[in-house]
Hints:
- This protein has helices at about 5-10, 15-25, 30-35, 40-55, 70-100, 110-115, and strands at about 30, 55-60, 65-70.
- With about 140 residues, the protein is mainly α.
- It has a domain at about 5-75: Winged helix-like DNA-binding domain superfamily/Winged helix DNA-binding domain (Arc Repressor Mutant, subunit A, Orthogonal Bundle).
Amino acid sequence: MANASAAFAALADPTRREIFERLARAPRAVGELAAELPVSRPAVSQHLKVLKDAGLVVHETQGTRNVYEIDPHGLGELRAWLDQFWAEALDAFKAEVEKTDPTEPDSTESGAKRGASRTRTSQPTLKPRNQEKRK
């Protein structure tokens, strides 16, 4: 995703992240956001511009107000970009789990035909140390 860098850069700012999280709860006008945050209305507008340029929010003009909301398309692209790493991690985990243990007996079809069974050696039991009673 080409916008992943822009999206992460936009969300790196704590004020923009707070604005984004508030928009995730419900669409809001610039004035509403400014009233809820310790920044000016022009500053909120600038933060929203950065979020919009990064593809994370969209706005709709309603009379004299611009109402902003999360852009599901942009957020979906960001999630898809992140999901590729999750898929790679799961694939690597699956490959590691499916590796055969070289110390295990052969469990191939021929081994099964011979009636071979897999047994695991038990771990030695550790006995607790004798502790002297303190007087």
